[in-house]
Task: structure prediction
Amino acid sequence: MSTAILQAAHLSKNFGGLRAVHDVNLACEKGQIHAVIGPNGAGKTTLINLLSGDLVPSTGVITYHDQDITELPAHRVSRLGIGRSYQRTNIFPEFTCWQNCWLAGQSRESTSLRFFKPANAARAVRARTEDALRTAGLEAQADVPANEVSYGEQRQLEIAMLLAMEPEVLLLDEPLAGMGIEESAHVIELISRIAVDHAIVLIEHDMDAVFAVADILTVMVDGVILESGSPEDIRGSARVREAYLGDEIENLKGAPE
Amino acid sequence: MVNLPSKSVIAVLIVIVAALALVPLGGDKYWIKLVTRMIVLGIFAMSLDLLVGYTGLVSFGHAAFFGLAGYLLHLISGDEAAVNMLWALPVCLGGTAVAAAVIGALSVRTKGIYFIMVTLAFAQMLFYFFHDSDLAGGSDGAYIYIKPILALGESVLIDLDSRYTLFYTALISLVAIYMVLVVVLRSPFGKVIQGIKVNEHRMQALGFNTYFYKLASFTIAGTLAGYAGFLFASIDGFVSPQLLGWHESGVALVMVILGGMGTLFGPAIGAIALLGVEEIFRDKALVGFMASHWQILMGGFVIAVVLFMNNGLGGLLLRLAGRRRGER
Result:
């Protein structure tokens, strides 16, 4: 576990009497996709919110490159190199795709307290913006307002914004939610391409996709980790089948690779 | 995101400024004073648009900084010699900036209706401070007997006591501040505050300390309002607590809405329109007996603009000129 970039130890989060997340351990290495699955209400999004700094855990420690980031606010966590996407599309609807990515790229500058120089003159930001749009396959939509592109493209834009932030760790909260088959395949391909030089924590309901790309799978139920291991282990686990996967895993077994 | 206005909009703006510049040539004292007031309130409204239209902060206490700068000018003005703007302006604007930074630090933590209430509360605190203390004439207000000058050594470059000088100083300031704000809005800082207006939470997730940028925007807007207040106090040479009150803050908001939020030049047009229309509605020769009930006509006018013009006069102008798209 010493190679893990992002590590969470004994994380818990209570909302009043509700144990949303309880004693969760999680680690993610570069080049690895760590998928977290589980039924609705299992605490997956809460876990992402804890890792991203949107929520402060009740107990437990989060470390990033051996630095304790447990209590850092979201913007500090983001600047360290941990980017997140959202389950419900969270973009700047009236700005163009280019401007959306531009803001993401600009966030990596040391400061934006520059008042008189035109923003467009920043070469590094331009390069990040262009790269992100190209990688996400959104070049053609660059100058279209984000609220005028298709839903699938908005989800792609969400990922493009993440890329423009040049993070080391990506926290992806259901990137395929609401996507068609073709769009899903496109984004899955994109995620596995990014995974080569990033550490990715992926929350996803699409089991075909999860088993296709994940290196490690963690199954959460009712805020606790039920099982964690390689996709083969999870596929073979009787506990997981019982608690959650049920029929879905049967279909997977028979499905051609 | 802010775009440079299209050529036709710029042409219209130039015509408006040129028309304003001709007013003093008529030599009518009343008109010069009225139009000076329009221009200065235009600067005030434009500074509020930076908050309302570009940062998404609806302040209901913006007059606090407008009035405060006026009071500071009164406090440093002598009875015998004029103050030199070379140091008077930094003192008044510096004092206003500090007040804006302190009030901002406490209020930009809140959002929406709470932000409106907190800014209103701070402005009312300042209002009652000057209203109830003997510091500057209390509720009666106080005079600035000798208006500020700008002097280098022995030579006086600008003397605001001359109504012509004051007029053109205000007009040049309006144009200059507009141009500077356009530059600022296109800068990295400008992009950040516009992002905050649309989706503050996302900006935080991107790594921006939004509190800090909102505070910077609030302080800049407050300081610019202070500059407007400095000029406004020089028009009549008189300050009263009303300058800091909620009514003045409300008028500024009406000017911004009338002129079009987030258009920058719009609120300045809104200020000119509001004062101009008031002048018309108070004229017995034009509206007859309704002149004594001019507020009714004014209410109807504001409602009509808001109902029938999408985003006020500035929005109308932008639509007529055609949208300019594609600027990155």
About this structure: The first helix of chain B runs from residue 7 to 26. Chain B touches chain A at residues 1, 183-184, 186-192, 195, 198-199, 201-210, 213, 216, 325-326, 328 (CB under 8 Å). The longest strand of chain B covers residues 155-159. Residues 23-243 of chain B form one domain.
